[in-house]
Amino acid sequence: MKLLKFGGTSLANAKKFLCVADIIEKNKNHEQVAIVLSAPAKITNYLVNIIENNININQALEQIELSEKICIEIIKNIKKIQSNFLYEETKKIIKTEFNQLQNIIYNFASLKKYPENIQAIIMSRGEILSIEIMKNILISRFHQVTIINPVENIISKGSFLNSKVDINASKKCISKINIKNDNIILMAGFIAGNNKGELVILGRNGSDYSAAILACCLNSKLCEIWTDVDGVFTADPRKIFNTFLLKSISYEEAMELSYFGAKVLHPRTIEPLKDFNIPCIIKNTSNIKSKGTLICQKNNSNENMLKSVTNIDDIAMFIVSGDLIKQNNNLISKILDILKKENINIILITQSSSKNNFNFCILEKDTKRTMILLNQLYELELKEKLLNNINIIRNLSILSIIGFNIFQKSNLTSKIFSSLGKSKINVLAISQGSSKYSISVVIKKKNILQSMQTIHDELFYNKTIINVFLIGIGGVGKSLINQILKQKKFLENKNIEIKIRTIANSKKILFLNNCIDLKHWEKYFKESKEKFNLEILNKSLKNNCFLNSVVIDCTSDENLSKQYVNFISKGLHVIASNKKANTSSLEYYNKIRNTALKENKKFLYETNVGAGLPVIQTLQNLFHTGDNLICFKGILSGSLSFIFGKLEENILLSDATKQAKDLGFTEPNPCDDLSGIDVARKLLILAREVGYEIELKDIEIEPILPEHFKKYHNTEEFLYKLKEMDAIFIERVKKAKNSGKVLRFVGTIEKGGKCSVKIEEINSNNPLYKVKNGENALTFYTNYYQPIPLVLRGYGAGNNVTASGVFSDLLRIIL
Ligand code: ASP
Ligand code: MG
User: Fold this and answer.
1) Quick one: angle between helices 57-81 and 125-140, nearest 10?
2) Is 711 among the catalytic positions?
3) Helix/strand/coil (H, E, C) string of 85-101?
4) Ligand 1: which atom is nearest the Cα of residue 7?
5) Of 283, 646, 682, 741, which one is the catalytic site residue?
């Protein structure tokens, strides 16, 4: 005998009902099966609306109509697929049920609240109808069916709405039913009966519990819970990234999991299964192939002790303090008793070691009642100041880590606290749980997702993850994504995973999740309708601030560069190919560095000078180890390197410039290159890097062109006017050549920090003599490197080299 239980989402429409019938049939081929069903998806919610929200008659009738519509739609479509389905009979039953419900509503309309026995009847209609529908599907497939009436056979005690089953009594009843061997057994979940034979229910989602009970009563060898998830995960996969399915867990772990908020099973389900030692397996009707999670008795000796991270939200913490706590040993147990009597569930308790402070957590919805109870109980003591005023902290969450003997796992607590600490999340209380199966921390609700993700990654995911928020997807940004994709295997071998969370340009932003394959990002980006602005960006950064989060700025946007301090303060690293931040005021320049130091975050910008050439890091290495710059000279512009190289081949300035533009070496308007300002910016960054506190305006720029060229904003016009300069440059090149020299556009930092950019005549001994064709070259004369300077030379522009520089900055975040 095997028991199969199907939840509401597995019965959401006709197709699903039929799919469930298929599963039942397949199992029946091997052994007898007993089936427990929930209500079709959504129906219980509609029925609950009738009774919970104090709604008027018309609204209540509306909810009934909605429920009826769902049921009729289901059987109509079943009939379409399975033509011999007993449609008319089923329809009649559905109609009768809902008519009766309507009558109930008319009868009780005058009351403010429905009596609890009536509430139970209303809420349980969905289950009754699921059974009717399934019965008729199975009959039309020529099966024999035995229906177990839960009101008569599942005997329970307690309230009408949250009853607890007496298994032995139920077992007795069920053993009296004559069930033929080849019959399929069907029973409505969620429903039971009290000793007066009245209908009661087992609490929301109680049909899991029904299934466990029936499995015990029928001596099933297995209880299968069919639902809409693959099983139990290391954390809720709908909220947390990188989770994985657990193959198996013990009964105790499963109980602890549902106690601490995992939504896979009704909390009472496991206990009976454990008592009768019936294994339980969680399966997914939408993914039949998945093996599911097995819950059974076992020793966990050779398994990972840690199983899952869970949360309960909407928690309030009561802080009871005062001398009385030390003096009166009974105080705590008295509080626990009185709350228990009032059905208020205390989820977690902590007491300070000094013993004059006692905290407990409850669901926020119970706060008011609890406060009233405590104030009544200790009215006098509060007045006499034996107890201080009771404090309540609201908007909290409990995060729990579940596993067998988890305290034996060395480092666990330190890992939890260090990962929360790194994300700057405060812990308000900790509890190691009286069982050996959990450790819980109380934190602010607004931090719960980030904390779960951080702790989950730290404990379950043995890879270092870098979370990237990429802004700017021009040539460099695109190349960067391609390089990351290309290096996936390499990174995997190094246990590194780069997760791109967001991709944006100046117009749009795309949020990536588990479902988006980075390979197809361009398609998703095109489809994205989310507009980009700084507000949206900041909001998304705030919500997604994982450990090792990095903003990469591949734009040249000044406004964005002004956000770096803000990003770093939020806990993100910043990598910029954008030069604007480092060339802004010295004040902002220093502020970024101070913030990064304070927040222990990195600000990296290797590509600001010489693109991928290792300029910044090399300089930092030298100066951190005590070297000093004597003098610097360099060719810092790819386009000007190209143009000046061409001049010595007797090509005219205007032609050389046009060629450079056509090859993609220049800015959109080459006027910007020839103005020398970009070279000045790079020089400023270098000068500041070696310790000179200067501003952009301190750099002397000797322009290549006369002042009036600035007014040609139109590229064509600019290139045309440039011809005016050709003759002058022929002259200058010739003059230089006559003394064995060439013209180069050179940036210079002299001792003392004086900086200039200008055309220079360079002789053949100078390392810059041979630099052309778009190459950059940087010569550093330092204390360590002289008289022969340190020379860095290579392409200083281009998408691939720049992206590779950004990529290596990215890896420096964690290395
Ligand atoms: N239909 C009931 C509910 O939604 C019971 C169940 O689905 O387990 O709470
Ligand atoms: Mg560089």
Assistant:
1) 10
2) no
3) CCHHHHHHHHHHHHHHH
4) 7
5) 682
Question: Which residues in the chain are classed under CATH 3.40.50.720?
Answer: 464-611
In angstroms, what is the C-alpha Rg of the chain? 36
Q: Does domain 464-611 have CATH number 3.30.870.10?
A: no
38 ligand 1 Cβ < 6 A: yes
Sheet holding 629-635, edge to edge: 700-701, 755-763, 741-749, 629-635, 775-782, 790-795
Which CATH class for the 2-228 domain? Answer: alpha beta
Closest-CA residue, ligand 1 atom 3, reads 205
- pLDDT of res. 267: 80
Smallest Cα–Cα separation from 236: which of 261, 256, 266, 254? 261
CATH superfamily of 616-797: Dihydrodipicolinate Reductase; domain 2 (3.30.360.10)
Is the CB of 206 inside a 6 Å radius of any atom of ligand 1? Answer: yes
Atom of ligand 1 nearest to the CA of 204: 9
Ligand with an atom nearest the CA of residue 610:
2
204 lines ligand 1 (CB under 6 A): yes
Of 546, 814, 773, 593, the closest CA to residue 693 belongs to 593
Which H or E run contains 272? Answer: helix 270-275
CATH of domain 307-460: 3.30.2130.10
- Which numbered ligand comes closest to the C-alpha of 130? 1
Q: Is residue 431 in contact with ligand 1, taking CB distance under 6 Å?
A: no
Mean pLDDT by 10 residues, the chain (815 residues): 97 97 97 98 94 82 95 97 96 97 89 90 97 98 97 96 96 96 97 97 95 98 96 92 91 91 86 96 95 85 79 95 80 88 90 78 96 91 88 96 81 87 86 81 93 90 90 95 96 93 94 84 94 90 79 95 95 95 97 96 96 94 93 95 94 95 82 91 96 96 91 90 95 96 97 96 94 94 94 91 96 90
What's the CA-to-centroid distance between 360 and ligand 1, angstroms?
Answer: 30
pLDDT of 309 reads 95
